[in-house]
Amino acid sequence: MSGLLEILQSGAEGLLRLVYPPACALCGGRLEPPRKLGLCPECWRGAPLIRLPYCTACGQPLNADEVPGGLCLDCRLQAPPVVLRAAALYREPLVSLLHLCKFDFWAPAAEQLAELLVERAHALFPDWRPDALVPVPLHPRRLRWRGFNQSELLARALAEHWDLPVTPALRRVRDTVPQARLPREARLTNLRGAFAPRRPAGLRGARLLLIDDVTTSGGTVYECARTLSAAGTAEVRAYLVARS
Ligand SMILES: [Zn+2]
Ligand SMILES: [Zn+2]
């Protein structure tokens, strides 16, 4: 029986290698074993990490004319509802890696993204430790289509590193058009009422870190943060792989 399983497994692996040979998602170069999906070391070294000075509220790099340790122009005009940090900018090679992870149904591609989150966590959250990590949820319909929630994979990797629990504190009650496809004004109304707390009573007084893969305007994590805060959390922050 185990022999048959092995044959089936190696057959499936062989087929996968045929469809997706272990090549870098950006340059097509050789991946460093044992990595089977993702970016080669050379492309990975080019990841545009976000380093100081960045905005203390939304985490985007500050322009040369903005004061280090302060807020960016966007946040000075309107303060975001949550302190947000992103590990890198949403540019290559992360665009290719995130695309591979999200649209090619490849959960293993999220491993390299998770490594980046773990690697940058100490620098971006030096004195702060949440009680639990909360992945941004997918609508059940989208979850069935994709087969996994990439934010949950990322949250689990970070949770293991920090020895913290992952709490699915939110559920998506309304399926929405992907934010990236909408103009800026439509993004706010698109998400209104999209999330609800799962067990509101358990959230009172909690310090939570929201985890997501990428944002263009912060809209999704901002709406998640508002929903959690309304349930009585003590503090919510957000941590993403990439922001534009
Ligand atoms: Zn490469
Ligand atoms: Zn800002």
How does this structure look, described?
- It is built from ten helices and six strands, in the order αααβααβααβαβαβαβ.
- The protein has helices at residues 2-19, 41-45, 73-77, 94-103, 110-124, 140-146, 150-162, 184-191, 200-203, 219-230; strands at 83-89, 132-135, 170-172, 195-197, 207-215, 235-243.
- The longest helix is centred in the N-terminal third of the chain and has 18 residues, at 2-19.
- The model has no long low-confidence stretch (mean pLDDT 87).
- The chain has a single domain (31-243), classed as Rossmann fold (3-Layer(aba) Sandwich).
- By secondary structure, it is of the alpha/beta class.
- The strands form two sheets. Strands 1-6-5-2 form a four-stranded parallel beta sheet, sandwiched between helices.
- Bound molecules: zinc ion (ZN) (2 copies).
- Residues 24, 26-27, 29, 39-40, 42-43 line the site of one zinc ion.
List the topology elements.
Layout: H1 2-19, H2 41-45, H3 73-77, E1 83-89, H4 94-103, H5 110-124, E2 132-135, H6 140-146, H7 150-162, E3 170-172, H8 184-191, E4 195-197, H9 200-203, E5 207-215, H10 219-230, E6 235-243
Parallel strand pairs: 1-6, 2-5, 5-6
Antiparallel strand pairs: 3-4
The structure holds zinc ion (2 copies).
